[in-house]
Amino acid sequence: MGKFLKKNWFIALIALIFIGISVYYIYDTNKGKLKGKTVNGEDVAYSVNNEDITASMFYDDMYKTNGEDTIMNLIMQSVINQSVETTDEMKTQAEKQAKSIRESYQSQYGSSYLEELEADLRTTGYATVEDYLIEQFKLSKLNADYAKAHFDELQIRNISYILIQYEDQTNPAEEATDDEKARMQAVDDALNSGTDFAEAAKQFSEDTSTAPDGGVLGTIDNKVTSLDTSFLQAALALNEGEVSDWVHSADFGYFRIKCNASTPETLEALDTTADPYSDLVNTYDTTLTTLAMWEKMQEIGYDFHGDADLEKNMLEAFGQGLEESEEEE
User: Looking at the domain assignment, is residue 324 inside a domain?
Assistant: First the structure.
């Protein structure tokens, strides 16, 4: 069931290390490691042919090349670092995952893997793989904290399901066939006889990716876009402990859905291997970064010092200010 495949956030991190992150962070990441040289009271970012490039010169050059994206990325990094502390657990996780990344590079590039890795790292602006991973862990924590604080607004749910697939998956009938009805009835009979939903999922669900785990999909919210629309609407309408009627999906077949948690207390008490909020923001709702960033910027108190154009562009970049501008028109 391809559209229901969970994203492996670790693999995604490995891929993201080497795309989309440009030189924006180079100075900010490494300024604490500089020797402390200054020119006219200003920090020197780097030198080329004995010419000292100061922090402001470095910034101006980035701005000319990349425009306000530079500012946005610097703002995001400063928000992350002011809002989330680096923990020993983050460092330990980063070391483990960095080791796997290096081993992957060695497998792919052989004896030149360090040169290849360093070349890729230079494009991200991070000194080490660990530095980048820690930054991503901190961003994930920022997003997870936002999700927890906006639990009801986001309609957060932890759900499980049982899937009965179409008899003919290439050309499904508009109405359930006798065979499909018989398989659904077997599920209903098991549930009505008192069989636990998780056990019924293990026995009857035809989604082999979730059935072994009792049909658990994980934690979702109302901003998820990777799930079937009918499935998502039905799942969000459930309260804790409720099981849906059969939900017809045009793409997959028929679902019975159970809501395992619809309150913070129950969600946080679930016996899961991962933090449920991190599971949400890393696996299903990867859209919360801009909202979380904007809220934290307000708390910190960002000041654009009267630059109206910059403020407008940053508001729009973080998904804010759009309704006000429409009202003014």
Answer: no
CA distance linking residue 104 with residue 90, whole number of Å? 21
Structure tokens at 294: 């904007």
Strands 42-48 and 38-39: antiparallel
Segments forming the whole domain that contains residue 126: 9-150
Predicted local distance difference test score (pLDDT) of residue 3: 35
Question: Does 1 reside within a domain?
Answer: no
Q: Count how many domains the chain has.
A: 2
pLDDT digits (tens, 9 = 90+) for 169-217: 888 888 999 999 999 999 999 999 999 999 999 999 999 999 999 999 9
Pick the closest to residue 69 from 305, 314, 304, 312 (CA basis).
314
Token pair in block for residue 284: 């299903």
User: What are the φ and ψ backbone dihedral angles of 253, each rounded to 5 degrees?
Assistant: 140, -125
Is residue 72 domain-resident?
yes
Residues 153, 164: Cα–Cα separation, whole Å: 31
**Is 311 a domain residue?**
no
Distance CA 203, CA 197 (A): 10
